[in-house]
């Protein structure tokens, strides 16, 4: 059996007569109860606020570039080298290679502010990144598809780099799948036209349908949960009427994953460094700094562990004081009247012995009957 943690934090009665300072402990204990109640109320307020996500719109600018190394010299350079008397090969023997870099950074907000801005790394905005290379698979058996998928609790990075061998230009197709928190869905054409939405979370889509129903007065007169479909909704749900609770399930067939971001880029090896002349901007939603701090506070357990450790120390001190108080009372009664105290103590022990013997005799008779 696990030993229960002691929880008694109350001072023994009449301790103030011997230790006047103990009154301060009692006052602190009462203050701590009020403080705990306030902290619990604030924690509930924070959790309620977290249920209402506040997002900050920002722009993520993506840059694509590549570097090359140990490439063969151009024809013009080779002719110049051949004209020289001593033509030495300065190649270090490493095979020609290139490195593709995909990086991104958040642009500053259009209206400057002194408030702290959220900082997130490039890979935190994507659930997966895929790079498809247009190369002969016979010459490059290591494969022409490179994939990166986000893993739980994995560190984020400011960019992605891919290094491969090669001495010719390569066409690359970069596919970025954004990650939305909470998850967003792409609406098909009929639903998008009805709600004037293209990409949205499911709760917002259901709320948009509810607003459409109220605006067009499509609720049944007797049962408000029944929706009388107009022409648009009949085309969507293939029914003259639907129960409102079924709508979240019915719209699943009209939702799809958001389209990935596709970037076409040519990896050039005739330069040591080459960067795409275009940059790619995408809109992203960020949690506000205040929200991030609230999430960290709610999720933090270190402070709670420290408080529990201090509570254990307080309980141990109170137990020690209680034990000392019992010992003091015992010795004080003995000092005031030793004979009477010893007689009472012997009588008490005798009663305890009789009780124990009675229990033992009952136990023995019970064993015999078995």
Number of β-strand runs: 14
Low-confidence stretches: 84-90
Category by helix and strand content = alpha+beta
For the largest beta-sheet, the strand count, sense and barrel status come to: 5 strands, antiparallel
Radius of gyration: 38 Å
- What's the N-to-C terminus distance? 29 Å
Give the helix level as a range of percent. Answer: 40-55%
Q: Rough shape?
A: elongated
Beta-strand content bin? 15-25%
Topology as H/E string?
HEHEEEEEEHEHEHEHEEEEHHH
**Mean residue pLDDT:** 82
Number of helices: 9
Give a brief description:
By secondary structure, this protein is α+β, with helices and mostly antiparallel strands. It has helices spanning 22-50, 75-83, 189-195, 202-216, 231-237, 247-250, 289-299, 302-336, 338-369, and strands spanning 55-69, 97-106, 126-134, 145-149, 159-165, 170-178, 184-187, 199-201, 226-228, 241-243, 255-256, 261-267, 273-275, 280-287.
